[in-house]
Amino acid sequence: MNTAVRKRLGSRSSFLDTSEALETTPTDARTTEWQKQWNSLGSQAAQWKERGITPDECLATGHDQTWAVWKTLNRLRVGEGRCKASMKKWNITTSDACACGEPQTMEHLMNCTQAPQCTGDDLAEPTAAALACANHWKDEI
Ligand SMILES: [Zn+2]
User: Fold this and answer.
1) How far apart are CA 17 and CA 5, in angstroms?
2) Using CB atoms within 10 A of its CB, is residue 86 exposed (0-12), middle (13-18) or buried (19+)?
3) Helix ranges, 4-138 (H)
4) Which has the least CB within 10 A, 24, 60, 62, 103?
5) CA distances from 27 to 24, 30, 49, 76, 95 (A)
6) pLDDT beyond 90 at 11
7) Is 17 helix (H, G, I), strand (E, B) or coil?
8) From the CA of 53, how far away is ligand 1's center (Å)?
9) What is the pLDDT of residues 23-68, one digit of tens each?
10) What is the whole-number distance in angstroms between the Cα of residue 120 and the centre of ligand 1?
11) Count of CB atoms within 10 A of residue 121's CB?
12) How far, in Å, from the CA of 85 to the mean position of ligand 1?
C-alpha cells in the first residue's frame, strides 16, 4: 500500500492526501466511474448510444485499421473533429464550406455528395461504407 511521503515543499501536495483506497478492483472502479460520468452526459450519451457506442473496457471497433483511419472513425462516431465548421468556430479558418458547397459539419462528412457516405450503424461495425468514408476524410479531420 502506498503512503504519503513527508512534504519537502509546502506548496506541493500529494494526491495521496485526497485519494481513497479502492474497495473493488481497479477495473471495476474505473468502469463504475466511467458509467457515472457517462450517465451525467444526458443527451450526448444518448446520441452516442444510438451510434452503438457504450462505455466498455476494450478498444473501439476498427482498431485493426491504420491509425489515421481509426482516428477518423472515432471522430465521426463521436461527432467531434477538425471539420471546416469546427475550424471556423475555433477561428482557424474563415470558411466552413465543403468542396460540395454545403457547410462542412461532422454530420455532413457522412452525407457529403462528393465522398463515400455512411451511417452511424456503419461506423459502429465498421462496414466497408464506413471504412471508405473514413479513408476519404482521414487527412482532413
Ligand atoms: Zn460536402
Assistant:
1) 10
2) middle
3) 26-40, 43-50, 67-78, 84-89, 106-111, 120-124, 128-137
4) 24
5) 8, 5, 22, 27, 44
6) no
7) helix
8) 25
9) 998 888 888 888 888 888 888 888 878 877 777 777 788 989 999 9
10) 17
11) 14
12) 11
Q: Tell me, what DSSP letter sits at residue 109?
A: H
What pLDDT does residue 97 have? 96
What integer pLDDT is reported at residue 4 of this predicted model? 64
136 C-alpha to center of ligand 1: Å? 12
Q: Which residues surround ligand 1, an ion (CB under 5 A)?
A: 98, 100, 102, 112
What pLDDT, in 10s, does the model give residues 90-133?
999 999 999 999 999 999 999 999 999 999 999 989 999 999 99
* Cα–Cα distance for residue pair 109/126, rounded to 1 Å: 16
